[in-house]
Design brief:
Length: about 190
C-alpha cells in the first residue's frame, strides 16, 4: 500500500525575478535565467539544481520535481555552457513555446511492476486537472532498503497544459498506482521563484 503526503521543499535556488510559474516570461526574466545557467556551469553546479523539488528527500519516501519555463531555460543554458556553447534564439524559442509543464515523481512499492498504469492528477481548489501525457516505469528499480519494504522505486512522469491550471494557485499533485494507494504532495505554485 502506498500512502504519503509530502510537503513541498522548493529548491529552485535561482533568484530569477519571477513569482509563480511564469507562462509568458519577460525578456528580463529570460535573460536572467540564461545568465544563471551559464553561471551555474562556471561554478560546477549541476543543471538539475534548477528543478523545483517537492516531497521528502529521504530515499524511501515519495518525492519529485517539476520544471518551469524559467527553470528549463537555466537547465538548457547550464548544459550548453558546460560544452562551451550558448543557447541559440531557436533553442530559447522552443522552450518558451512549450505548452506543457513536466512533473516527475518517484514512488515506492513492493513489486517490480507496481507502477504500471499509474496515473497523476493535479488539484486546485477542489478541481482535478488531468495530464496530457503520463509515462511510468514498467520495471521498478530496487530501493535502498531492498529486500525490506518498500522494496522498489519507480518514476511516474506527467505533462500538464499550462492553459489547464492556475500557475499561482495552491496545488496538490497526486500519483495513483494501478495497484492501489496514492502519493500526494502539496505545493503552492504562487511561491515558486
Amino acid at each position: 500500500m502506498l500512502l504519503c503526503v509530502g510537503v513541498v521543499a522548493l529548491s529552485c535556488l535561482s533568484p530569477v525575478p519571477a513569482h509563480a510559474i511564469e507562462v509568458l516570461p519577460t525578456a528580463e526574466q529570460i535573460q536572467a535565467a540564461l545568465d544563471q545557467g551559464k553561471e551555474a556551469a562556471q561554478r560546477g553546479r549541476p543543471p538539475d539544481s534548477f528543478y523545483v523539488r517537492f516531497g521528502v528527500t529521504d530515499e524511501v519516501q515519495p518525492n519529485g520535481f517539476l520544471i518551469t519555463k524559467i527553470g528549463a531555460l537555466s537547465v538548457m543554458a547550464t548544459h550548453m555552457a558546460l560544452r562551451g556553447l550558448q543557447p541559440s534564439n531557436a533553442d530559447v524559442t522552443q522552450v518558451l513555446e512549450d505548452t506543457t509543464m513536466l512533473i516527475s515523481t518517484v514512488i515506492l512499492g513492493n513489486t517490480p511492476n507496481f507502477a504500471v498504469d499509474s496515473y497523476m492528477v493535479i488539484e486546485q481548489g477542489g478541481k482535478p486537472i488531468k495530464p496530457v501525457m503520463v509515462r511510468f516505469d514498467a520495471q521498478a528499480d530496487r530501493s535502498v532498503v531492498w529486500p525490506k519494504s518498500p522494496r522498489f522505486k519507480a518514476k511516474v512522469v506527467a505533462s500538464f497544459n499550462y492553459a489547464d491550471f492556475d500557475p499561482k494557485a495552491k496545488t496538490t499533485i497526486t500519483v495513483y498506482p494501478a495497484t492501489g494507494g496514492e502519493s500526494s504532495f502539496s505545493i503552492n505554485f504562487g511561491e515558486i521563484d
